[in-house]
Amino acid sequence: MSGTATTSATAQSAKMKKDESFLGKLGGTLVRKKKSKEVSDLHEEGKKAINAPMLPTGTDIHPEDTLLEENAERIMLDPTSRENLKFKDLLKVLIDWINSELEEDRIIVKDLEEDCYDGQVLQKLFEKLSGRKLNVAEVTQSEIGQKQKLQTVLEAVNEMLRPHGWTIEWSVDSIHSKNLVAIVYLLVALAMHFQAPIRLPEHVSVQVVVVKKREGILQTALVTKELTSTTEMMMGRFERDAFDTLMDHAPDKLNVVKTSLITFVNKHLNKLNLEVTELESQFADGVYLILLMGLLEDYFVPLYNFFLTPESFEQKVHNVAFAFELMQDGGLKKPKARPEDVVNLNLKSTLRVLYNLFTNYKNTE
């Protein structure tokens, strides 16, 4: 082997050792980084375990929760409450009411969180109900503009409701952050204050997750929020009708009223060889109500407009709602009873509807 070859081999060997040394260092760095990440992950996992020992199952801590200022709190609807049937029913009643009120504005609400947070719908609804025009921009895309609009709307609402003893359960931030509970509280208050022609479901409660930061640590708790109480309490600000008094204080006279109403409806239904013996059940599917309206107003209701032999709950609700439309077409006020109440055999609701017909058509032959 020549001296040149020996020198070349020595250089190559030195390079290999250097490469091995570099790879070793790199490997060591990678291992250290991996261990560092594991320690970081473990620390984060421990932090979450400390911060949220009481967090309800199925509820996640949002990234923004960790950014809460000291003593600040964030409220979220518990996922199980979102599926509560009575809560869903309340949402539907409120959505239908808003759409009915804003029909002339061609506004259609489908989702309270997505459609109410920017203040546009709430502005239009308040203006329609109160007859007041608010000094706000019609369309606002920016977050600042939306919050300014909400501020103006909520100031007007709060100014109107506070003298009547309402507890303000909403704010600009809660509405704009799409807090469904705050939005529902606001809409229920407006519906009750303005005597909306709707029947709110009774005893609707939901659970909310309250996240608070105390001494740098997140604390969570489940809190129950009552959105509606009994109809009597909710409508206490309104004029109670004859059936509230009758059923509360003179149940013995109830049969007399029922007999009078049965006589009234049979006077007309007998023309179609139909007869009613039970008010609660025989009007629950809406068919007799529709036929009765046709007889009272002297027109034939096309069969394709309703279900003659309804089978599902939805078909029955459709029929009763259609009967209500016919009543409004005849010049009657929209019934305060909900179609769902009539379908569910709620006697007071059915009596209200029939009594309204009786007072308007008792002299009709």
TrEMBL record:
Taxonomic lineage of the native organism: Eukaryota, Metazoa, Chordata, Craniata, Vertebrata
Top-level taxonomic group: Eukaryota
InterPro entries in alphabetical order: CH_dom, CH_dom_sf, Parvin
Pfam families: CH
Alphabetized PROSITE patterns for the sequence: CH
Location relative to the cell: Cytoplasm, Cytoskeleton; Cytoplasm, Myofibril, Sarcomere, Z line
GO molecular function, one term: actin binding
SUPFAM superfamilies linked: Calponin-homology domain, CH-domain
Keywords, in A-Z order: Actin-binding, Cell adhesion, Cytoplasm, Cytoskeleton, Repeat
Calponin-homology (CH) domain location: 88-195, 255-362
Annotated organism of origin: Seriola lalandi dorsalis
GO cellular component assignments: actin cytoskeleton; focal adhesion; lamellipodium; Z disc
Family recorded in the similarity comment: Belongs to the parvin family.
Protein name as it appears in the record: Parvin, beta
Biological-process GO terms, alphabetical: actin cytoskeleton organization; cell-matrix adhesion; establishment or maintenance of cell polarity regulating cell shape; lamellipodium assembly; regulation of heart contraction; substrate adhesion-dependent cell spreading
